[in-house]
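TA notes, week 10

Several of you asked for a full example with nothing omitted. So below is the full record: structure tokens for the whole chain, then the designed sequence directly under it. When grading your own attempts, check the secondary structure regions first.
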């Protein structure tokens, strides 16, 4: 659910997080382009036209009864045997993405948006509010991305890494994101959200730039403190699930 900019920021933080085992950080630093690409391509479903359950392994409106990344491995057994270090790092990025989105769905989207009754607020406006909070995160995180991110991401080269999305789809999404974060690049987040919401991006921009409108549309329903708490929880969950994945699969890969 968070945007590629937020997922890239999380990946960036994981690379230097001393609470994350150094052996895992060293692997991901050796294969940073693949790790970055893995961290964003689940959202390439937007370009590929497939459903969320195909790339995220859960769907809105149904309980998440199994870790989505484990369901991915169960549905696609070949992914339990990464072919090389780059493939392993790519899958680690994918696991991180799925973990972040799982935490976001369970701790923010469902309890705060879908299950919470916002008195007098129509569903369409709640959907707008969800995208407002995602854009707040997106614009904050884009600024915080390190200068190496765009060039590094552009160096990623998929090689049959997923059985459910083609390399061409992965490359297309890689290039879409990289051109936005390159120095001087222009974010396309509002244009993408505008199409999804069937609203003029200028209308969304006007709300974002008006503190009174933001208070009425979003913050009185989901306080900033709640967002900060959920983000901390989601990051910790992502780091822990990534450690679980690498603990299980990195030794097996190393022994091949």
């Amino acid at each position: 659910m968070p945007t590629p900019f937020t997922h890239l920021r999380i990946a960036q933080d994981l690379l230097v997080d001393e609470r994350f085992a150094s052996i895992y950080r060293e692997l991901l630093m050796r294969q940073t382009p693949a790790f970055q690409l893995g961290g964003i391509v689940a959202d390439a479903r937007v370009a590929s036209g497939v459903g969320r359950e195909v790339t995220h392994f859960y769907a809105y409106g149904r309980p998440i009864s199994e870790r989505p990344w484990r369901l991915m491995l169960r549905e696609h057994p070949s992914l339990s045997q990464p072919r090389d270090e780059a493939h392993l790092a790519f899958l680690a990025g994918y696991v991180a993405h799925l973990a972040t989105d799982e935490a976001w769905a369970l701790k923010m989207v469902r309890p705060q948006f879908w299950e919470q009754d916002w008195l007098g607020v129509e569903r369409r406006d709640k959907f707008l509010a969800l995208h407002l909070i995602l854009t707040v995160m997106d614009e904050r995180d884009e600024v915080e991305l390190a200068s190496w991110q765009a060039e590094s991401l552009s160096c990623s080269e998929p090689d049959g890494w997923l059985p459910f999305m083609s390399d061409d789809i992965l490359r297309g999404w890689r290039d879409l994101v990289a051109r936005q974060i390159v120095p001087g690049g222009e974010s396309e987040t509002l244009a993408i959200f505008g199409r999804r919401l069937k609203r003029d991006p200028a209308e969304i921009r006007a709300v974002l730039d008006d503190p009174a409108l933001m208070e009425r549309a979003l913050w009185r329903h989901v306080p900033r403190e709640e967002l900060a708490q959920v983000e901390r929880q989601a990051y910790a969950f992502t780091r822990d699930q990534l450690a679980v994945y690498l603990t299980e699969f990195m030794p097996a890969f190393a022994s091949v």
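DSSP finds 14 helices and no strands in the chain. Use that as a sanity check on your answer.
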